[in-house]
Amino acid sequence: MLNSGDVFAGFTIERLLGQGGMGSVYLARHPRLPRLTALKLLNRELFTDAEIRARFDREADLAAQLDHPNIVAVYDRGVEDDLLWISMQYVDGVDAATVNPYSMPPERAVQIIEGVAAALDYAHGNGVLHRDVKPANIMLARSGGGKGERVFLTDFGIARLREDSTHLTQAGMFTATLAYASPEQMTGAELDHRSDQYSLACALYWMLTGVGAFDSDNPDEVIRGHLQLPVPSASARRPGLSPAVDAVIARAMAKRPIDRFATCSDFASAAKRALTVRVPMPPPMLPPQSVAVPAIPYSMEATVALGAHPSMRPGPPAFGAPPPPPPNPPVNQAVPQTYSPPPGYHAAPQQVSRRSGRSLGWVLAVVGIVAVVVIVIVVVVLSATGT
């Protein structure tokens, strides 16, 4: 552990920037030039083998040849006190893993991915794979003059060194960060540029939702997710996010590399377009329109007078039709003020006549019957007498 003011390989240490499984990074002053650099010291225990040290030299040389505005530049490398070190461009900013994803607009997340995708495509074109794309390796800094945010990708080739130093590749294992590792890395298959694309899609998923695509405290479940399970919907975890983004991420995270985008920039462009897709809202529900049914005259008096005749009784209701109305009450009971007609009829309710009207009707009916009986008797008597 170095302290402020210590000198290492000619660099004057200012302060510790961060540390991890690979080593520590310090802010240091260049021994001759008036500039600050990021000085990474790799853990001694990981790089004791001579072959691994030779690999370190080759990987550092490849990374130093990458000259891209979205890639942290490598200035120098060497060995000091049996420690491997790399001098890199210092980015005065933060890494994406420290940014709260819940406060990050989706547009900013995709803009960051665009910068990283450009860096990866450039590196892939020069035969260099990153192998450990994740938010912690994405640096964010303000541009000069307040012209927006600059995006940098760092630690090219370091993951390959870690694999070689721990000999995990011989056992078909991997050392990339589990939440962002591609299926090929987990199975020990041959890697190409599409492995970095898978990891980049995992990084976008985290920046949009705040969780890994296959988030779990159980490493076996995370591995099973990467190898077997479909990608969970990001829009279901981020309200307001277009579901079109789900399809783009799912393609970039396809289990088979051949099913992914051709390049990382193709993936980033598709994600940017997907943000503008809006799900059409369903049309508003309109009230059902009523169909006018012609009213058929309906006489309550006719029902009372003829209700006892079999031919006038309503038949059995059709299937699914409402039950028939209750039978007419006796005349000496109160009659409801409204009446529900049988199925198929649509008529305004009729007002029932008053009690005095009904009584008069019965009197007239009795008088008529008596008259008929008298006439019948007279006819029978006259017939019997021969008149």
TrEMBL record:
Pfam families per record: Pkinase
Sorted keywords for this record are:
ATP-binding, Kinase, Membrane, Nucleotide-binding, Serine/threonine-protein kinase, Transferase, Transmembrane, Transmembrane helix
| Database matches in SUPFAM superfamilies | Protein kinase-like (PK-like)
On whether Coiled coil is a keyword of this UniProt record, the answer is: no
* One function term, GO molecular function aspect: protein serine/threonine kinase activity
Q: Where is this region: Disordered?
A: 309-352
Query: Does the entry feature the keyword Nucleotide-binding, yes or no?
Result: yes
Identification of the protein by name: non-specific serine/threonine protein kinase
The organism that produces this protein has a lineage beginning with: Bacteria, Bacillati, Actinomycetota, Actinomycetes, Mycobacteriales
